[in-house]
Amino acid sequence: MKKKIFSGAQPTGRLHIGNYIGALKNWAQLQYDYDCVFGIVDYHAISVPFSPSEMKQRVLDCAIGFLASGIDPEKSIIMLQSLVPQHTELTWILNSVSPVQDLMRVPTFKEKSAQHKGNINMGLLDYPVLMAADIIIYKADFVPVGDDQVPHIELTREIAREFNKRYGYTFPEPKEILGPRILGLDGQAKMSKTLGNCIYLDETPDEIWKKLAPALTDTRRKRRNDPGEPKDCNIYNCYLKRFCDKEEIRYIEEGCRKASIGCLECKKILFKKIVKELTPVREKILELRQNENYVMDIIYKGSKKARIIAEKTLTEVKEKIGFDYKL
Ligand code: TYM
User: Fold this and answer.
1) What is the pLDDT of the chain when averaged over all its residues?
2) 4-182+291-320: which CATH architecture?
3) What pLDDT score does 87 carry?
4) Contact yes or no for 90/133 (Cβ under 8 A)
5) Is 112 a catalytic residue?
6) What's the confidence (pLDDT) of residue 45?
7) Are 203 and 285 contacting, i.e. CB atoms less than 8 angstroms apart?
8) CB neighbours (10 Å) of residue 123?
9) 35-40 and 4-9 as β-strands: parallel, antiparallel, unpaired?
10) What ranges do the domains of the chain cover?
11) Measured from the CA of 190, which atom of ligand 1 is nearest?
12) Which residues of the chain have pLDDT under 70?
């Protein structure tokens, strides 16, 4: 029997290279060897201010990003969290085994509370418990994510362990499969839509070059002839290593150290590789945007399949806690 995987993304709209390299590209490869469920986690997205009239489009954009990155709906389940209410029901049960002091220590709770001082709601605090429910309701063995999600997966293991301890073995303790962290083009912080330091998956080559050309490199290289150190260059660490092959990387490392190539030349090599990899993704995005009913249909079908698995686990959980009723 294949091992199981769950992972998810918030419907924040267009997906960016950080999501792609950190998560989606991994998912697309893993789906050949694992039983995968990939969630669009819309209930997570309402813990910060949002516009109801935009939510459905954001969900569609997210599903389109999944599909264009290579998630095959014949192989993997693509589901919408709010269409599988078993996730939120399990969250309530898990709430009673989740220590509040641990939730208050989660870095994203601290960050989001600082960002949204006027709206520190229960959803922000409970966010990791819903995430634990997302994962363990499918009895997932692995969770492929970017490293920003690691504290959440650690907490998921603790919640699963505590439930198993109190009520008998039910859930495996899931492990993360880590994708690389992609910093934004400013080299200062993780690429994220809120910070606006992104290259989006649907951007044209012109738009990509406009962002890439001025992006931060090794600050030692003030002039063309200054030698640099690739390991101190954000473009090298986060982008070149992900898009170029070994030979190109070696050529660039040497050229940078000897100043035989300049940063702009290096970026031109990278640019070609990014465009080569992302052009089919962008074309697929544009095609799917013309077929939103087809995309919605995939979400509905996937959510129905997910409900069957989730309901089975929820029934088992309820029996374990003594809620053994037949209506
Ligand atoms: P979200 O929507 O922020 O991001 C989706 C995935 O993309 C990864 N990611 C990145 N990886 C590398 N570099 C970056 N700059 C970057 N930006 C985003 C994230 O690590 C993530 O893997 N809490 C989750 C959603 C979630 C979830 C789950 C994930 C809810 N339930 C259960 C896994 C399992 C989140 O906000 O991801």
Assistant:
1) 96
2) 3-Layer(aba) Sandwich (3.40)
3) 98
4) yes
5) yes
6) 96
7) no
8) 16
9) parallel
10) 4-182+291-320, 205-286
11) 15
12) none
Strand 142-146 and strand 77-80: the pairing is: unpaired
Topology of domain 205-286, CATH: Tyrosyl-Transfer RNA Synthetase (1.10.240)
**In angstroms, what is the span from residue 86 Cα to ligand 1's centroid?**
21
Per residue in 26-39, pLDDT (tens digit) is: 999 999 999 999 99
Burial class (CB in 10 A: 0-12, 13-18, 19+), 181: middle
Q: Give the active site residue among 3, 190, 305, 318.
A: 190
- What does the alpha-carbon distance between residue 134 and residue 84 come to, in Å, rounded to a whole number? 10
Q: Are 256 and 262 in contact (CB under 8 A)?
A: no
- Taking the model in full, what pTM does it have? 0.96
* CB of 281 sitting under 6 A from ligand 1: no
Say how many C-beta atoms besides its own lie within 10 A of residue 158's C-beta: 16
- Whole-number pLDDT of residue 66: 98
Q: What digits encode the pLDDT tens for the residues 158-212? A: 999 999 999 999 999 999 999 999 999 999 899 988 888 999 999 999 999 999 9
